[in-house]
Write a structure and sequence with these properties.
Largest sheet: none
Order of helices and strands: HHHHH
Number of strands: 0
Structural class: mainly alpha
Helix content: 55-70%
Radius of gyration: 12 Å
């Protein structure tokens, strides 16, 4: 599953519009649309925000071989 597929699927599962996800992550709706429809990859800092907003692990977004959205969540740092 590609980064594009994971972003779109996770957003839909959370019931978020592209605009809502953009607002949560501090990027434009156009940027979210490009992540979902092209091979554009987010910067690491943005990918962290996407993972948090979508409630998935960073590992899941970064690695096409990982299909479990919760994979690596136990590594998330808590303060």
């Amino acid at each position: 599953m590609t980064f594009s597929d994971k972003i779109k699927r996770s957003r839909e599962v959370r019931g978020l519009s592209q605009q809502q996800l953009a607002d949560l992550t501090g990027v434009s709706k156009r940027t979210i649309a490009s992540y979902e429809s092209t091979n554009a990859m987010a910067r690491l800092s943005t990918m962290r925000k996407l993972a948090e907003a979508l409630q998935v692990s960073l590992d899941y977004l970064q690695n096409e071989d990982i299909t479990d959205p919760t994979y690596g969540m136990e590594k998330k740092e808590y303060v």
